[in-house]
Amino acid sequence: MRILTKIGRIDIAAAVLLCALSAAIGLLAQTNLTGVWILRVPRTDGTFNESFFELKQDGEAIAGTMLGNRETPIADGSFKDGKLHFVVRVGAAGKQQRETAYDGVLDGGKLQMTQTVPGRDPVKSVAERSTREAANPARLPVPDLRDVRDNGLARTPPMGWNSWNLFAGRVDDKTVRGIADAMVSSGMRDAGYVYVNIDDTWEGARDADGNVTGNLKFPDMKGLADYVHSKGLKIGIYSSPGPKTCAGYEGSYGHEAQDAKTYAAWGFDYLKYDWCSASRMYKDEDMQAVYQKMGDALLASGRPVVFSLCQYGRQDVWKWGPQVGGNLWRTTGDISDRWQSMDMLGFRQLDIATYSQPGHVNDPDMLEIGNGGMNGDEYRTHMSLWSMLSAALLAGNDIRNMSEETKSILMNREVIGIDQDPGVRPVKTVSQQGTAVVLAKELSGGAVAIGLFNRGDQPAEISVNWAAAGLTRAIQARDLWKHEAAAAAGPSFTATVPRHGVVLLRASAR
Ligand code: GLA
User: Fold this and answer.
1) Is the dihedral of CA 368, 373, 376, 379 positive or negative?
2) N or C: which end of the chain has fewer CB within 10 A?
């Protein structure tokens, strides 16, 4: 009896085990990962970085793409014994290429994922089934083109600060308040820098009514706006016409009017509107209409809001920026804190300079002055060139902690005066000999700003003929970096200009 019972028990246990095993094997055999998956990686600010993958399983082989602004093929894909593996390589082959390995374990219909980038800690997250529509929403209808009423703002180029160049994703409420304090204590505000602009990564989830909220780094957007206003400053915000911003945060897609109202209710005075993921559902030809939609929404919000277009100069934006209500429009890709970047972006503006006018200006991107990647001569060139171009002066450095040299560059009121000249007249090229470039800009009251720029790697003697710069009478001139009179006698002026440096003059009839 005893023996029998024992055998019986063993039999039952074995049968249960067999059953479970065959069920598991059956499940694995049946499981096919084919379809769209969303991978949600939590960020410390309470939001998620979402990516979409479309997988195609064939036996143990996995192929497919990472969906996004571009579709990137996945490589080395396999699914064996419930374990998924694939690799995504972004960028051209070589040093620049970034490779991410994705490993997943199937767990009740979800995938427990580990994401590994060489040299970094692995990141754990969960992938769930999703749809192609969630990854690439359908294109919303766009309005017919017509002219948006001019908001009357920013008659001279906007001046202020923006968080992106230095802080990028590390910006938070405390930093913005600290910057606002420093804008006052450093003298920046009184020199004309009034906008304190929060760039990307402030955005949180939408609430049940679809209202956008700040994330954990920005718990009280209205309170923050009130604080910045209490310092005699204005405050700016950032969004995208796409579902996601460039850093992968919540965009305004399908919520344009609602978001404009929210920004106005919080008290924001400036919006930078960045194309980013809008390229997933709109064509480049839709851009004007898409920007017009937000231009209208800002006007309808009832609050005066400077409208800053950011779509990297595509579609000849300088030709239609004012029609969509734009006060400024980026004409370039992103600046970086290097001479080559600043030099290339700045001097590339000369051909389109005639499109800038009071209230509507080309934007060659924000300032890098004080961020450490260029020397004093190069930063003086940056400030001088942006001022000759009548570009927005949006400092991108840590205002709370500036060297005397940085202060002397950003707060050179004589140079700011060139930028802020109410005529917003287009800069002209007086001469260009190799890397020696002489630019002139007519100022109100008959004066002329003249910049002698040395783009070369050696000091150079650069001359300007007064008449060629538009000054035909006997003149007087002032050196705006030395803050002293310049030798104006004779028909021309010559200076030795340091490598990557500038001599900036304000010349007028005597
Ligand atoms: C784009 C813009 C930048 C900045 C980032 C934020 O790259 O051109 O100026 O706003 O997005 O993600």
Assistant:
1) negative
2) N
**Tens digits of residue pLDDT in 393-445:** 999 999 999 999 999 999 999 999 999 999 999 999 999 999 999 999 999 99
**Can 274 be counted among the known catalytic residues?**
yes
334 lines ligand 1 (CB under 6 A): yes
Residue of 206, 313, 322 lying closest to 254 (CA atoms): 206
Nearest ligand 1 atom, CA 245: 12
Cβ neighbours, 10 Å, residue 231: 19
Q: Do residues 316 and 397 both lie within one domain? A: yes
Q: Whose CA is nearest to atom 3 of ligand 1?
A: 334
Whether 144 is catalytic is: no
> Do 331 and 185 fall into the same domain?
yes
Q: Which atom of ligand 1 is nearest to the CA of 199?
A: 10
| 367 Cβ contact list (under 8 Å, min separation 6) | 165, 382, 383, 386, 393, 394, 395, 396, 397, 410
Segment 207-226, tens digit of pLDDT: 999 999 999 999 999 999 99
CATH number of the CATH domain containing 454:
2.60.40.1180
Q: Is residue 146 part of a domain?
A: no
Q: Indicate whether 498 belongs to any domain.
A: yes
190/53 same-domain check? no
Residue 10 has pLDDT above 60, yes or no: no
Rounded to the nearest whole angstrom, what is the distance from the C-alpha of residue 275 to the centroid of ligand 1? 9
Distance CA 78, CA 60 (A): 5
Binding site membership of 199 for ligand 1 (Cβ less than 6 Å): yes
274 lines ligand 1 (CB under 6 A): yes
Three-state DSSP state, 208: coil
| Residue 147, in any domain of the structure | no
User: Cα(52) to centroid of ligand 1, in Å?
Assistant: 21
Q: Tell me, in angstroms, the distance from the centre of ligand 1 to residue 333's CA.
A: 9
